[in-house]
Amino acid sequence: MRRSFLAIFIPLASLVLLLAGCPSASQGPSSPSIPTRTHTDSTTPTASASLTATPSMTATQTLTLAADTATLTPPLTSTSTLTSTASLTSTPSPTSTATLTRTNTPVPPTLTSTSTQSPTGTLTSTSTLTTSPTSTFSPTGTSTLSPSPTPSATPTATNSFSATATPSPSFTPTGTLPIPTDTPSCLSTSSFGVDSIGSNAYPSLPNVFAQKAVLGASVPVTVLSLSAHFTAIGGPIRAAIYGDNGSGTSPTTLICESAPFSLTGSGWKVLDLPDTILSGPATYWLALQTPFGGTSTSISFEPGGPANSWAYGNGTGYVYGPFPMNFAPYQNYADYLSIHANFCNPSGTVTDTPTITETRTFTLTRTPTPTPTLSQTPVCLDTTSFGVGSIGSSAYPSLPNVFAQKAVLNASVPVTVLSLSAHFTAIGGPIRAAIYGDNGSGTSPSTLICESVQFSLTGSGWKVFDLPDTILSGPATYWLALQTPFGGTATSISFEPGGSANSWAYGNGSGYVYGPFPTNYSLYQTYSDDLSIHANFCNPAGTATQTPTITLTRTPTLTPTPTSTRTSTRTPVPTDTPACAPTASFGVTTIGAGAYPSLPYVFAQRATLSGSLPVTVMSLSAHFTQIGGPVRAAIYKDDGGGTSPTGLLVESMEFSPAGSGWVVLDLPDTVLDAPGTYWLALQTPFGGTATSVSYDASAPSEIWAYGSGAGYSYGPFPSPYQLYATYPQDLSIHANYCP
Fold this sequence. Notes:
By secondary structure, the chain is mostly beta strands. It contains no helices and 51 strands.
């Protein structure tokens, strides 16, 4: 992509001829990625004659360049002053006629560019362009200046000029400046931890357990979730990340935690976390939590790791709920649990094209009528609140477990709520905050909208509880909720008695257990007091104001020597780099002449990967002559001799295709960085399906393996592969990858 930098000398015409501003030229379609320039011209001519005046023109403008277009903004508001002195008695008039001679000798500009580039794709460039032409004017003209500025309360100004100028500048700029191409977008994820499927499974997980994982990234990354491979799930699960104690032997302080998940089935499960920035290289501990003792949840693991590979926390006194702030280690083990953390990859690169050389010669004739147009980018600079913002004269001596103050949001546009504030006279334990919707009649909270993490506060006065940024629409009624452990805390909140009926609600009851807020509020009783609780939301800020000004003073004889200095700030225009679509494959890409009348349950085609590595495998393709039930896909490692599959590398979810022909079975994106032999596997329910795959037995180049046995149960693929027999035939199965 090329960009042109145009600089325009604006000649000054006659004795009283107005040449205000820098006219714009529009000669072609604009480019969406043209940089913006801001430049300042200052011209101070000196002359003497029987009529004496001193001109000074100062203008601040933005030069916008397209392929064949030069446009200068903002338009200008001008003030003109004419001062004359004569030895004879005369009445000066603002209309004059003069004859001047100008010879324009441009000096090639010198362009200096300094660029600072960051890994996020932001380029800041400062350039300086200096010209020193010597000019003598020689048109004859008559000019009448009639400035008519029209100010407005909104950031729009209109100027009318009754002046005609016919400049014919010829200017040839040559510059060198990098043009950035910026692609900052998260299109894919990477992981750290254990991303392989262990060959064993713990029959019943302990209460809190954490796998040690090393983040090797040299720049901060944003962690999005944890993934864990289960062989069975029998109850709720929570996820978290802990820091390391500095020696790699134990977790220490909680960094982030998830909400509880109610999962079923088996295989890889993704547990979403609050987006959390982690710095590397460093050691972290990826933690899971299940209720103690009573669940039949099992996780895959690989024995034989180094000491202190994973840690078992708490003990028999443990209560399932939010993770402890400080991990209480019970015992460490030398196994690899199949748990890893997923973080975002910034996509794309910043590419500099360092040289631009362009020549432009143009002639402009302008009668300018400038009109500036301003746009605003709202920024959140302050907050407003709704609810009870005053401090009540009384205090409840001991708060109930879950309680909520009714609050009306009167905003006519959606707002972003950032936090709750509450006024306490005493705090004696942990506190959580949340917002509920209304039941439609203003008499009770209903459904949970958002909730905070646990806060451990002390003292008294106003306390702020940060919430996930949440958009609420108004006008509407909401309930601002707090939660404390039932009965045992000495936490008191300020309130003002004598409010309206159903002002605040007391929820749950004596059977309540402190922890995450219930999704549906369980109302116990309402009261007519006003609790000192309000929600804080963001105000869009700022009003753009622009007042462009030109001040002109003229003399009859002009010999200007202008010096132009421009400073430009470049903002790259980001473009997305689309995710790679599969463009190559390995395995059997031909359609076999034969077809197995009924597929066995687990079967795998041997395939050889070669060429430029690494590659990202995205799917398997198989050619079916008929499909009579569900199908799963997977890739296995080789035993080293090319005779059998061994460990499972990756597996798909279940598919229910129909018909016949080539079918694409999507896999989690998997990087293969070693050349050699892999096994491309499919799985169907045993015996009862009428699914057939194409094969060729006439001149096979590979073999395929039949796995498991009569005790097989359809579901997640086994690891390692349980070989039954191999056959010298080519099944029509291949893997699709992105180079």
